[in-house]
Design goal:
The structure is a single chain. It contains 15 helices and 13 strands. It is of the alpha/beta class. β4, α6 and β5 form a beta-alpha-beta unit. The protein is globular, with a radius of gyration of 22 Å. It is 43% helix and 15% strand. The strands form three sheets. It has a seven-stranded mixed beta sheet, sandwiched between helices. The structure holds 4'-deoxy-4'-aminopyridoxal-5'-phosphate (PMP).
Length: 402
Amino acid sequence: MRKKLHDKVNAYKAADEARRMGVYPYFRPISSAQDTEVIIDNNRVLMFGSNSYLGLTNHPKIKEAAQAAIAKYGTGCAGSRFLNGTLDLHIELEEKLARFTGKEAALIFSTGFQVNLGVLATLTGRNDYLILDEADHASIIDGTRLSFSKVIKYRHNDMADLDAKLSKMPEESIKLIAVDGVFSMEGDIAKLPEIVQIAEKHGASIMVDDAHGLGVLGPKGAGTAAHFGLTDHVDMISGTFSKSLASLGGFVAADRATIEFLKHHARALIFSASMTPASVASVIAAMDIMENEPERIKQLWDNTAHASKLLKQAGFDTGHSETPIIPIYIRNNEQTFLMTRILQEQGIFVNPVVSPAVAPQDTLLRFSLMATHTYEQIEEAVGKISAVYKQVKAMSAETQAI
Ligand code: PMP
């Protein structure tokens, strides 16, 4: 039988089905700034589903910097970094990032996703190995799909498995371990001291994707490697500007030779337009605030400790989270979606996380903190999550009894 694209896309009904049941949780339009409180459908909703860990996305100084950049440079660069799209502002940010991460040089891409596509597809070849934690972010996985090298995954944070897998790889192959610094759904931290030790034993290189570690871990928010004092033992540190740094874009920092190689080989950089002036200026302003106002990071950790304590007291399984990303394991897709909807009706925004973002049995509500949340907001959210959990469990028990 002839197969047509049209038939395939028309057969996709899952989203419609969820809409019909009133539990569709994606693409919820927000008509305000991304802050601790947002407006959805004309209602005020407390935001516990954001990656704006430092609460900077609506900061007046950052907005001013973005406006000034637009006034000076216009709205776009109309080309890639490689050709006409490099501004002095891009170079300024790269130099700042290199200093901040403690590396010789840095290179900015238009998104964090593109960093992983560019770096991983470029650095290893046909006879080489890319080694991933099974919980790594989708952009790392997609980066490996663009690479011709062999891809091997080890069990999440399982160092014996990492060691065993590396032991089987030939001496003469390049080996690059790519790992999230902070795991984006589980909120736990990579075991970097052990990874470094194992990598050194096998002659492997390490790239830490610190999308969720920057602005959160380490002195002045310098990230996971700095947190462990291992900056010099990690070959590459990458990150995004779409979380703590209140903008859009991403970077990789490394030694000068690696950055030079990437500048001339990474297709996701060379064949894509550069970050807009407003986005770059926002990052520079956000980094200044982060470095000069360390109390924000302290507040983020106070909020995290408070929320974590309350969620545990309420009896929730929050896994191995050690960061402002707190998974609330529900382990049932329908109940997770239903809770998301009822919570939003009650003024609380959380994200449902189902397969393939986590294993099918690990369905969770992702609860994330910002430095700007108040204890009252956190207490209100945890109280409501608790009550709604009981309500949804009772509804499921009733349905099963029928
Ligand atoms: N890496 C990780 C670990 C992430 O969580 C994300 C975003 N969710 C990215 C990369 C991609 O970053 P960006 O949003 O800048 O594309």
